[in-house]
Design a protein that fits this description.
By secondary structure, this protein is of the alpha/beta class. The protein is built from 13 helices and 17 strands. It is 30% helix and 22% strand. Strand 9, helix 4 and strand 10 form a beta-alpha-beta unit.
Length: 429
Protein backbone atom coordinates (compact mmCIF):
# COMPACT_ATOMS: atom_id res chain seq x y z
CA UNK A 1 0.00 0.00 0.00
CA UNK A 2 1.46 3.34 -1.06
CA UNK A 3 4.50 1.83 -2.85
CA UNK A 4 5.13 3.38 -6.25
CA UNK A 5 7.89 4.46 -8.59
CA UNK A 6 7.34 7.53 -10.76
CA UNK A 7 9.64 7.63 -13.77
CA UNK A 8 10.58 10.61 -15.90
CA UNK A 9 9.02 13.35 -13.79
CA UNK A 10 9.73 16.94 -14.75
CA UNK A 11 10.17 19.30 -11.80
CA UNK A 12 9.28 22.98 -11.92
CA UNK A 13 13.06 23.56 -12.06
CA UNK A 14 12.95 21.72 -15.41
CA UNK A 15 14.87 18.67 -14.17
CA UNK A 16 13.96 15.09 -15.03
CA UNK A 17 13.86 12.86 -11.93
CA UNK A 18 12.55 9.53 -10.72
CA UNK A 19 10.70 9.27 -7.41
CA UNK A 20 10.81 6.19 -5.21
CA UNK A 21 7.79 5.94 -2.89
CA UNK A 22 7.67 3.50 0.03
CA UNK A 23 4.74 3.17 2.44
CA UNK A 24 3.32 6.44 1.16
CA UNK A 25 6.50 8.41 1.85
CA UNK A 26 9.01 9.77 -0.66
CA UNK A 27 11.98 7.50 -0.03
CA UNK A 28 14.28 8.94 -2.68
CA UNK A 29 14.46 11.30 -5.64
CA UNK A 30 17.16 10.39 -8.15
CA UNK A 31 18.28 10.76 -11.73
CA UNK A 32 18.47 7.04 -12.45
CA UNK A 33 16.59 4.03 -11.12
CA UNK A 34 18.88 1.18 -10.10
CA UNK A 35 17.81 -2.49 -10.04
CA UNK A 36 17.94 -2.33 -6.24
CA UNK A 37 15.36 0.50 -6.28
CA UNK A 38 12.71 -1.67 -7.90
CA UNK A 39 11.05 -2.87 -4.71
CA UNK A 40 7.56 -2.61 -6.27
CA UNK A 41 6.03 -3.66 -9.57
CA UNK A 42 3.97 -0.49 -9.66
CA UNK A 43 5.96 1.80 -11.95
CA UNK A 44 4.37 4.74 -13.74
CA UNK A 45 6.18 6.54 -16.55
CA UNK A 46 5.08 10.18 -16.51
CA UNK A 47 6.85 10.88 -19.81
CA UNK A 48 8.25 14.19 -18.60
CA UNK A 49 4.99 15.65 -17.36
CA UNK A 50 5.42 18.30 -14.67
CA UNK A 51 4.97 17.38 -11.01
CA UNK A 52 4.06 19.73 -8.18
CA UNK A 53 3.27 19.08 -4.51
CA UNK A 54 -0.29 17.90 -3.97
CA UNK A 55 -2.59 20.89 -3.56
CA UNK A 56 -3.86 21.86 -0.11
CA UNK A 57 -7.19 23.66 0.12
CA UNK A 58 -7.58 25.36 3.51
CA UNK A 59 -11.16 26.43 2.83
CA UNK A 60 -13.91 23.99 1.84
CA UNK A 61 -17.51 23.48 2.92
CA UNK A 62 -18.37 19.81 2.45
CA UNK A 63 -21.80 20.12 4.16
CA UNK A 64 -21.46 16.82 6.00
CA UNK A 65 -23.10 16.25 8.47
CA UNK A 66 -26.53 17.81 8.23
CA UNK A 67 -26.60 19.20 4.69
CA UNK A 68 -25.62 16.19 2.60
CA UNK A 69 -28.23 17.00 -0.05
CA UNK A 70 -25.72 19.70 -1.11
CA UNK A 71 -22.47 17.71 -0.73
CA UNK A 72 -20.94 15.04 1.51
CA UNK A 73 -17.45 13.87 2.33
CA UNK A 74 -17.47 11.27 -0.42
CA UNK A 75 -18.54 13.52 -3.29
CA UNK A 76 -16.59 16.53 -2.02
CA UNK A 77 -13.35 14.63 -1.49
CA UNK A 78 -13.68 13.01 -4.91
CA UNK A 79 -14.05 16.51 -6.36
CA UNK A 80 -10.88 17.47 -4.49
CA UNK A 81 -8.92 14.53 -5.90
CA UNK A 82 -10.24 15.24 -9.38
CA UNK A 83 -9.13 18.87 -9.00
CA UNK A 84 -5.56 18.01 -7.94
CA UNK A 85 -6.03 18.40 -4.17
CA UNK A 86 -4.55 15.88 -1.75
CA UNK A 87 -5.48 17.69 1.48
CA UNK A 88 -8.59 19.70 2.32
CA UNK A 89 -9.62 21.56 5.48
CA UNK A 90 -13.34 21.75 6.18
CA UNK A 91 -15.14 24.73 7.68
CA UNK A 92 -17.33 24.38 10.81
CA UNK A 93 -20.71 25.62 9.52
CA UNK A 94 -22.40 22.24 9.18
CA UNK A 95 -25.37 20.92 11.17
CA UNK A 96 -24.50 20.71 13.98
CA UNK A 97 -21.87 23.44 13.95
CA UNK A 98 -18.42 22.02 14.64
CA UNK A 99 -18.05 24.14 17.76
CA UNK A 100 -18.26 21.44 20.45
CA UNK A 101 -15.91 18.53 21.01
CA UNK A 102 -18.79 16.10 20.40
CA UNK A 103 -19.60 17.60 16.99
CA UNK A 104 -15.90 17.81 16.12
CA UNK A 105 -15.32 14.13 16.88
CA UNK A 106 -18.44 13.11 14.97
CA UNK A 107 -17.39 15.00 11.85
CA UNK A 108 -13.87 13.59 12.05
CA UNK A 109 -15.31 10.08 12.23
CA UNK A 110 -17.60 10.67 9.25
CA UNK A 111 -14.74 12.08 7.18
CA UNK A 112 -12.43 9.22 8.15
CA UNK A 113 -14.92 6.76 6.67
CA UNK A 114 -15.77 8.72 3.50
CA UNK A 115 -12.89 10.96 2.43
CA UNK A 116 -10.67 9.78 -0.38
CA UNK A 117 -8.04 12.48 0.30
CA UNK A 118 -6.34 13.59 3.51
CA UNK A 119 -8.18 16.17 5.56
CA UNK A 120 -8.32 18.40 8.61
CA UNK A 121 -11.07 20.38 10.31
CA UNK A 122 -11.46 23.97 11.38
CA UNK A 123 -13.39 24.40 14.62
CA UNK A 124 -16.09 26.91 15.42
CA UNK A 125 -15.94 29.17 18.47
CA UNK A 126 -18.72 28.84 21.05
CA UNK A 127 -17.54 29.02 24.67
CA UNK A 128 -14.08 29.03 26.22
CA UNK A 129 -14.73 25.54 27.57
CA UNK A 130 -15.65 24.25 24.11
CA UNK A 131 -12.59 25.89 22.53
CA UNK A 132 -10.31 24.27 25.10
CA UNK A 133 -11.87 20.83 24.73
CA UNK A 134 -11.67 20.90 20.93
CA UNK A 135 -7.99 21.88 21.14
CA UNK A 136 -7.18 18.36 22.37
CA UNK A 137 -8.59 16.99 19.08
CA UNK A 138 -6.03 19.00 17.08
CA UNK A 139 -8.07 21.34 14.87
CA UNK A 140 -6.25 23.05 11.99
CA UNK A 141 -7.53 26.39 13.26
CA UNK A 142 -10.62 28.08 14.65
CA UNK A 143 -13.08 30.00 12.49
CA UNK A 144 -15.33 32.98 13.19
CA UNK A 145 -17.90 34.48 10.80
CA UNK A 146 -17.66 38.10 11.89
CA UNK A 147 -20.90 39.03 10.11
CA UNK A 148 -22.85 36.93 12.62
CA UNK A 149 -21.64 38.54 15.87
CA UNK A 150 -21.68 41.88 17.66
CA UNK A 151 -18.36 43.53 18.49
CA UNK A 152 -18.31 42.79 22.21
CA UNK A 153 -18.99 39.12 21.58
CA UNK A 154 -16.34 39.05 18.86
CA UNK A 155 -13.58 40.31 21.14
CA UNK A 156 -14.43 37.64 23.68
CA UNK A 157 -14.28 34.94 20.97
CA UNK A 158 -10.91 36.24 19.76
CA UNK A 159 -9.70 36.08 23.35
CA UNK A 160 -10.70 32.41 23.70
CA UNK A 161 -8.68 31.47 20.61
CA UNK A 162 -5.66 33.57 21.63
CA UNK A 163 -4.93 31.06 24.41
CA UNK A 164 -4.75 28.07 22.04
CA UNK A 165 -1.67 28.87 19.92
CA UNK A 166 -3.80 28.10 16.86
CA UNK A 167 -4.58 30.41 13.93
CA UNK A 168 -7.95 32.13 13.81
CA UNK A 169 -9.60 32.09 10.38
CA UNK A 170 -11.98 34.95 9.75
CA UNK A 171 -14.85 35.76 7.44
CA UNK A 172 -14.56 39.54 7.51
CA UNK A 173 -17.77 41.50 7.03
CA UNK A 174 -19.18 43.99 9.53
CA UNK A 175 -22.52 42.74 10.86
CA UNK A 176 -24.12 46.10 11.56
CA UNK A 177 -23.37 47.58 8.15
CA UNK A 178 -24.39 44.44 6.27
CA UNK A 179 -27.66 44.21 8.20
CA UNK A 180 -28.43 47.90 7.58
CA UNK A 181 -27.61 47.73 3.86
CA UNK A 182 -29.68 44.59 3.30
CA UNK A 183 -32.66 46.05 5.17
CA UNK A 184 -32.47 49.26 3.14
CA UNK A 185 -31.88 47.77 -0.30
CA UNK A 186 -34.31 44.87 0.07
CA UNK A 187 -37.12 47.33 0.81
CA UNK A 188 -37.11 48.18 -2.90
CA UNK A 189 -38.87 45.34 -4.78
CA UNK A 190 -36.87 46.10 -7.94
CA UNK A 191 -33.75 44.79 -6.21
CA UNK A 192 -35.28 41.32 -5.82
CA UNK A 193 -34.17 40.56 -9.37
CA UNK A 194 -31.19 42.92 -9.56
CA UNK A 195 -28.34 40.72 -8.39
CA UNK A 196 -25.63 43.39 -8.68
CA UNK A 197 -27.36 45.07 -5.73
CA UNK A 198 -26.03 42.25 -3.57
CA UNK A 199 -22.49 43.56 -4.14
CA UNK A 200 -23.44 46.81 -2.44
CA UNK A 201 -25.56 45.28 0.30
CA UNK A 202 -22.53 43.34 1.53
CA UNK A 203 -20.29 46.24 0.64
CA UNK A 204 -16.55 46.67 0.24
CA UNK A 205 -16.71 49.00 3.23
CA UNK A 206 -18.19 46.21 5.37
CA UNK A 207 -15.14 44.09 4.59
CA UNK A 208 -12.76 46.94 5.32
CA UNK A 209 -14.34 47.70 8.70
CA UNK A 210 -14.25 44.07 9.78
CA UNK A 211 -10.63 43.57 8.71
CA UNK A 212 -9.61 46.72 10.57
CA UNK A 213 -11.35 45.38 13.69
CA UNK A 214 -9.70 41.95 13.29
CA UNK A 215 -6.28 43.58 13.05
CA UNK A 216 -6.95 45.70 16.14
CA UNK A 217 -8.07 42.69 18.20
CA UNK A 218 -5.24 40.45 17.03
CA UNK A 219 -2.64 43.08 17.98
CA UNK A 220 -4.05 43.38 21.48
CA UNK A 221 -4.15 39.61 21.94
CA UNK A 222 -0.98 38.68 20.02
CA UNK A 223 -3.07 36.32 17.90
CA UNK A 224 -2.28 34.76 14.51
CA UNK A 225 -5.13 35.53 12.11
CA UNK A 226 -5.86 34.18 8.64
CA UNK A 227 -8.25 36.34 6.64
CA UNK A 228 -10.37 34.32 4.24
CA UNK A 229 -11.49 35.37 0.73
CA UNK A 230 -10.23 38.96 0.80
CA UNK A 231 -12.00 40.62 -2.10
CA UNK A 232 -11.08 44.31 -2.41
CA UNK A 233 -7.99 46.35 -3.24
CA UNK A 234 -8.77 48.78 -0.43
CA UNK A 235 -8.63 45.97 2.12
CA UNK A 236 -5.31 44.82 0.67
CA UNK A 237 -3.85 48.28 1.28
CA UNK A 238 -4.92 48.15 4.92
CA UNK A 239 -3.47 44.66 5.37
CA UNK A 240 -0.21 45.65 3.70
CA UNK A 241 0.32 48.38 6.30
CA UNK A 242 -0.61 46.05 9.17
CA UNK A 243 1.74 43.21 8.26
CA UNK A 244 4.73 44.78 10.02
CA UNK A 245 2.97 44.63 13.40
CA UNK A 246 0.45 41.80 13.04
CA UNK A 247 0.76 38.03 12.56
CA UNK A 248 -1.54 37.98 9.57
CA UNK A 249 -1.96 35.86 6.44
CA UNK A 250 -4.55 36.27 3.71
CA UNK A 251 -6.38 34.09 1.22
CA UNK A 252 -7.73 34.70 -2.26
CA UNK A 253 -10.45 32.72 -4.01
CA UNK A 254 -10.57 31.93 -7.75
CA UNK A 255 -13.92 33.67 -8.18
CA UNK A 256 -12.71 36.93 -6.66
CA UNK A 257 -9.49 36.77 -8.70
CA UNK A 258 -11.13 36.11 -12.05
CA UNK A 259 -14.60 37.69 -11.83
CA UNK A 260 -16.30 40.96 -10.96
CA UNK A 261 -19.94 41.81 -10.36
CA UNK A 262 -20.68 42.21 -14.06
CA UNK A 263 -20.77 38.39 -13.97
CA UNK A 264 -24.21 38.70 -12.37
CA UNK A 265 -25.48 40.22 -15.63
CA UNK A 266 -24.38 37.21 -17.68
CA UNK A 267 -24.50 34.24 -15.31
CA UNK A 268 -27.17 35.51 -12.96
CA UNK A 269 -27.97 34.75 -9.35
CA UNK A 270 -26.03 31.45 -9.38
CA UNK A 271 -22.84 33.53 -9.04
CA UNK A 272 -23.99 34.87 -5.66
CA UNK A 273 -21.39 34.34 -2.95
CA UNK A 274 -20.20 35.87 0.34
CA UNK A 275 -18.35 38.16 0.18
CA UNK A 276 -19.91 39.06 -3.15
CA UNK A 277 -18.20 39.62 -6.48
CA UNK A 278 -16.99 43.20 -6.47
CA UNK A 279 -17.46 46.27 -8.58
CA UNK A 280 -14.47 46.98 -10.84
CA UNK A 281 -13.67 49.99 -8.65
CA UNK A 282 -12.90 47.61 -5.78
CA UNK A 283 -12.21 44.11 -7.08
CA UNK A 284 -8.89 42.28 -6.92
CA UNK A 285 -7.30 40.70 -9.99
CA UNK A 286 -4.29 38.53 -10.76
CA UNK A 287 -2.18 41.69 -10.64
CA UNK A 288 -2.55 41.59 -6.84
CA UNK A 289 -1.72 37.92 -6.40
CA UNK A 290 1.71 38.61 -4.89
CA UNK A 291 -0.05 40.22 -1.91
CA UNK A 292 -1.70 36.92 -0.96
CA UNK A 293 -0.39 34.00 1.08
CA UNK A 294 -2.76 31.29 -0.12
CA UNK A 295 -5.58 30.41 -2.46
CA UNK A 296 -8.62 28.72 -0.96
CA UNK A 297 -11.41 27.59 -3.24
CA UNK A 298 -14.14 28.40 -0.69
CA UNK A 299 -15.86 25.40 -2.27
CA UNK A 300 -19.44 26.10 -1.16
CA UNK A 301 -21.90 23.77 -2.90
CA UNK A 302 -25.69 24.14 -2.96
CA UNK A 303 -28.46 22.58 -5.01
CA UNK A 304 -29.52 24.39 -8.17
CA UNK A 305 -32.96 24.91 -6.63
CA UNK A 306 -31.36 26.72 -3.68
CA UNK A 307 -29.27 28.86 -6.03
CA UNK A 308 -32.06 30.00 -8.35
CA UNK A 309 -34.17 32.19 -6.08
CA UNK A 310 -34.13 35.99 -5.79
CA UNK A 311 -31.32 38.35 -4.80
CA UNK A 312 -31.91 37.92 -1.08
CA UNK A 313 -33.12 34.33 -0.71
CA UNK A 314 -30.83 32.50 -3.13
CA UNK A 315 -28.06 30.52 -1.39
CA UNK A 316 -24.60 32.12 -1.43
CA UNK A 317 -21.66 30.00 -2.55
CA UNK A 318 -19.73 28.73 -5.58
CA UNK A 319 -18.10 25.29 -5.99
CA UNK A 320 -14.37 25.64 -6.70
CA UNK A 321 -12.44 22.41 -6.19
CA UNK A 322 -12.54 21.25 -9.80
CA UNK A 323 -12.06 24.56 -11.56
CA UNK A 324 -9.26 26.34 -9.69
CA UNK A 325 -6.20 24.57 -11.06
CA UNK A 326 -7.16 24.78 -14.76
CA UNK A 327 -7.83 28.50 -14.31
CA UNK A 328 -4.42 29.07 -12.71
CA UNK A 329 -2.49 26.91 -15.17
CA UNK A 330 -4.08 28.77 -18.07
CA UNK A 331 -2.63 31.97 -16.64
CA UNK A 332 0.76 30.26 -16.29
CA UNK A 333 0.62 29.41 -19.99
CA UNK A 334 -0.23 33.03 -20.75
CA UNK A 335 2.84 34.12 -18.69
CA UNK A 336 0.60 36.13 -16.38
CA UNK A 337 1.73 34.15 -13.31
CA UNK A 338 4.43 31.57 -12.67
CA UNK A 339 4.13 27.94 -11.68
CA UNK A 340 6.25 28.80 -8.64
CA UNK A 341 3.51 31.21 -7.54
CA UNK A 342 0.84 28.55 -7.99
CA UNK A 343 2.81 26.09 -5.81
CA UNK A 344 3.50 28.76 -3.18
CA UNK A 345 -0.17 29.67 -2.87
CA UNK A 346 -1.75 26.23 -3.16
CA UNK A 347 0.72 24.00 -1.34
CA UNK A 348 3.85 25.47 0.31
CA UNK A 349 2.13 28.25 2.23
CA UNK A 350 -1.04 26.43 3.31
CA UNK A 351 1.13 23.69 4.84
CA UNK A 352 3.13 26.34 6.75
CA UNK A 353 0.20 28.50 7.86
CA UNK A 354 -1.69 25.54 9.30
CA UNK A 355 1.43 23.60 10.35
CA UNK A 356 0.51 20.47 8.39
CA UNK A 357 3.32 17.94 8.91
CA UNK A 358 5.12 16.29 5.97
CA UNK A 359 3.14 18.03 3.24
CA UNK A 360 3.66 20.91 0.84
CA UNK A 361 6.99 19.79 -0.64
CA UNK A 362 8.27 17.05 -2.92
CA UNK A 363 11.26 16.02 -0.83
CA UNK A 364 12.64 12.90 0.81
CA UNK A 365 10.74 12.03 3.97
CA UNK A 366 7.59 13.91 2.97
CA UNK A 367 4.23 12.34 2.21
CA UNK A 368 4.07 11.28 -1.43
CA UNK A 369 1.37 13.84 -2.27
CA UNK A 370 1.93 14.76 -5.89
CA UNK A 371 -0.14 16.43 -8.59
CA UNK A 372 0.82 15.70 -12.19
CA UNK A 373 0.25 18.40 -14.80
CA UNK A 374 -0.22 18.38 -18.54
CA UNK A 375 0.48 21.96 -19.50
CA UNK A 376 -0.54 21.33 -23.11
CA UNK A 377 -3.94 19.81 -22.45
CA UNK A 378 -6.76 22.11 -23.49
CA UNK A 379 -10.51 22.11 -23.26
CA UNK A 380 -13.50 23.90 -21.79
CA UNK A 381 -14.74 23.84 -18.21
CA UNK A 382 -17.46 21.18 -18.21
CA UNK A 383 -19.54 20.54 -15.09
CA UNK A 384 -20.74 17.21 -16.51
CA UNK A 385 -17.24 15.84 -15.80
CA UNK A 386 -17.28 16.96 -12.15
CA UNK A 387 -17.60 14.79 -9.05
CA UNK A 388 -19.11 17.44 -6.79
CA UNK A 389 -22.87 17.31 -6.38
CA UNK A 390 -22.98 21.02 -7.29
CA UNK A 391 -23.04 21.05 -11.09
CA UNK A 392 -22.78 24.76 -11.75
CA UNK A 393 -20.04 27.37 -12.13
CA UNK A 394 -19.77 30.90 -13.56
CA UNK A 395 -16.68 29.54 -15.35
CA UNK A 396 -18.67 26.98 -17.37
CA UNK A 397 -17.46 26.65 -20.99
CA UNK A 398 -14.45 28.85 -20.24
CA UNK A 399 -11.45 27.64 -22.25
CA UNK A 400 -8.42 26.38 -20.38
CA UNK A 401 -4.88 25.36 -21.35
CA UNK A 402 -3.16 23.17 -18.77
CA UNK A 403 -4.69 20.93 -16.13
CA UNK A 404 -3.90 18.13 -13.70
CA UNK A 405 -4.02 14.60 -15.15
CA UNK A 406 -3.09 12.58 -12.05
CA UNK A 407 -3.39 13.08 -8.30
CA UNK A 408 -1.34 10.96 -5.89
CA UNK A 409 -2.11 10.92 -2.16
CA UNK A 410 0.48 9.21 0.03
CA UNK A 411 1.65 7.07 -2.87
CA UNK A 412 -1.84 6.07 -3.99
CA UNK A 413 -3.16 7.25 -7.35
CA UNK A 414 -6.50 8.78 -6.37
CA UNK A 415 -7.35 10.43 -9.67
CA UNK A 416 -6.19 9.87 -13.23
CA UNK A 417 -7.57 11.83 -16.17
CA UNK A 418 -11.32 12.02 -15.39
CA UNK A 419 -11.51 9.00 -13.11
CA UNK A 420 -11.31 8.97 -9.31
CA UNK A 421 -10.02 5.85 -7.59
CA UNK A 422 -10.78 4.44 -4.17
CA UNK A 423 -8.54 5.69 -1.39
CA UNK A 424 -8.69 6.11 2.37
CA UNK A 425 -7.95 9.65 3.46
CA UNK A 426 -6.64 10.30 6.95
CA UNK A 427 -6.63 13.17 9.43
CA UNK A 428 -3.37 15.04 8.95
CA UNK A 429 -2.56 15.95 12.58
Amino acid sequence: MGDLILKNCKTIENKIVNIIIKDGIIEDIKKEILPSDKTTDKIVDLKEKIIIPGLIDPHVHLRDPGLTHKEDWESGSKAAAHGGYTTIIDMPNTIPQTDTVKAFKEKKEIASKKSCVDFALHAGVKTKEDVDKILKEKPAAYKIFMDLHENEELYQMFEYVSKTNKPLCLHCEDKNLVDYNIKTLSSNPENDSKTTTYSYARSALAELIAVNRAIEYSKKLDLQIHLCHISTRQTLELIHEARTSTNITIEATPHHLFLDNSTYNTYGIKAKTNPPLRDKNYNITLDYLNEFDSIGTDHAPHTLEEKQKNTWTSAAGIPGLEVTLPLLLTEVNKNNITLDEVVRLTSHNPSKIFKIPNKGLIEKGYDADITVLDMKKEGKINVDEWFTQAKYTPFENREYLGCNVMTINRGNIVSEENEVCKNEGKYVY
